[in-house]
Amino acid sequence: MKIGHIYGFEKFRDGGSLVASFQGDDSCEYWVMFSIANMDCESPEYKPHVFTNR
Q1: DSSP assigned state of 46
Q2: pTM above threshold 0.85
Q3: How far apart are CA 14 and CA 45, in angstroms?
Q4: What are φ and ψ of residue 17, in 5° steps?
Q5: Over the stretch 1-54, which tens digit does the pLDDT of each residue have?
Q6: Burial of 14 (0-12, 13-18, 19+ CB in 10 A)
Q7: Is 18 left (phi over 0), alpha (psi -120 to 50) or beta?
Q8: What pLDDT, on a 0 to 100 scale, did the predictor assign at position 31?
Q9: What is the model's pLDDT at position 15?
Q10: Where are the domains of the chain?
Q11: DSSP 49
Q12: Residue by residue, what is the 3-state secondary structure of 15-41?
């Protein structure tokens, strides 16, 4: 898959989970989410990514 357009990046208020939203070459919107695994602001760790077709 190729990325046609990046919509944005968000940091959630759950302590720092990250989401990137983009449009694929199939014209669908996708999210890639990295959920926060710890609450250490100095050295955050993330769970494996989750890829979602929105």
Answers
A1: B
A2: no
A3: 13
A4: -60, 145
A5: 899 999 999 999 888 899 999 999 999 999 999 999 998 878 889 999 999 998
A6: exposed
A7: beta
A8: 96
A9: 83
A10: 3-53
A11: P
A12: CCCEEEEEEECCCCEEEEEECECCCCC
38 vs 14: CA distance, rounded Å: 10
Rounded to whole angstroms, how far apart are CA atoms 38 and 51? 20
Cα 21 from Cα 6, distance rounded (Å): 6
Q: State how far the Cα of 34 lies from the Cα of 46, in Å rounded to an integer.
A: 6
Residue for token pair 């989401």? 19
Neighbours of 52 (CB within 10 A): 12
